Amino acid sequence: MRDYKFCPLCGTPLQSGIIDGKRRGYCPQCGFVAYKNPIPSVGAIAIRDRKVLLVKRGKDPGRGSWAPPSGFVESGETPEDACLRELKEETGMEGVIKGLIGVYLERTKIYGEVLVIIYLVEITGGELKAGDDADDTRFFHKGDQPKLHFSCFRRAIEEVF
Ligand SMILES: [Zn+2]
Q1: Domains of the chain by range and CATH?
Q2: Ligand 1 mean position to 16 CA, how many Å?
Q3: Residue 87 has pLDDT above 80, yes or no
Q4: pTM over 0.70
Q5: What is the C-alpha separation between 138 and 36, in angstroms, rounded?
Q6: CA of 35 to the centre of ligand 1 (A)
Q7: Ion ligand 1: protein residues whose beta carbon lies under 5 Å
Q8: pLDDT in tens, 89-132
Q9: Distance separating alpha carbons of residues 103 and 118, to the nearest angstrom
Q10: CA–CA separation, 94 and 38 (whole Å)
Q11: How far is the CA of 37 from the centre of ligand 1 (A)?
């Protein structure tokens, strides 16, 4: 998360004060306020033949643990685009968005607060193959699922699976 010391608009050193009820950095010259916001990310819950698609994460946060395909929304793409891109990158599978399951707030050590937008996805094709950011990818039956590191994914899967 960005932590400004100087105003990104006019270069004046920021001061600290209470703005909108919270302590924040602000610019005494031009009025810029350094609001802090969670980072938007997406997750894909893809179910096929009564099994859910998971990825063994090759990167932090949650390295080595299993999770649905997920990642950050990049500038220039919609959350739906990001969701299907991460699905394809991490698992080799192609899909279409069937609906929004929910929007969750996850607190991570590395990135701070992450807003996780989780979609239900229908697999339409592709070949199952773990991508560069993943150590493994597999479909799991409900009873055989590994424990998931992030509570947002546990909650989202429970909604639909
Ligand atoms: Zn300024």
Answers
A1: 1-36 (2.20.70), 39-160 (3.90.79.10)
A2: 13
A3: yes
A4: yes
A5: 36
A6: 14
A7: 7, 9-10, 12, 27, 29-30, 32
A8: 999 999 999 999 999 999 998 899 999 999 999 999 999 999 98
A9: 6
A10: 28
A11: 19
